[in-house]
């Protein structure tokens, strides 16, 4: 007969059968795998968008700003007036400086319309486009008003088409002046804050821990006169 186990002796647990998984592995199998969370991009900022997603957002935001603030309507009206004036003057003999000014302004207005419509200016950040557009409107207004004055003085008797072309040039100059007023929306709340270029005050050096402050040196005795 086998000897009986002594009282109080602990029995060792039986080893698990071959091929059985430990309990921790079973728990891991039961837990569902966590799905990767998608990053929620902000609506009013670019966020971390890249590639085509960023260009779509830039295109939408640029056209929204361009049309809602009224710049698109004003520029298209100015462009239409200048093209109509060019067509009216094409059948007349006029001074070449008038054709030059009209052609120059048509090309500049077309450039800015394409620039804002395709969000090209968003990828050229080193140029201040609102200021560039503001100066363009000021110079366009000055050139077009000067063209009207020159056209009136250069011819005493005006043909009907010539008179209509001069009126359209003046209307385009008025639209450019209106666009200058609309450009103020870009500069609202963008004034430079005070003390932006002032360096922050230096931090006082704290005494290092573990080092006692050095004792003050006793004053040197005054040397007696010889």
From TrEMBL:
It is a multi-pass membrane protein. Residues 66-188 form the MARVEL domain. The chain crosses the membrane at residues 66-91, 97-119, 126-150, 162-182. Residues 21-46, 202-226 have a biased composition (Basic and acidic residues). Coiled coil: none annotated. It is found in: Membrane. It holds the Pfam family MARVEL. GO terms for cellular component: membrane. Keywords: Membrane, Transmembrane, Transmembrane helix. Residues 1-46, 191-226 are annotated as: Disordered. Residues 1-12 have a biased composition (Low complexity). Its main location: membrane. This is CKLF like MARVEL transmembrane domain containing 2.
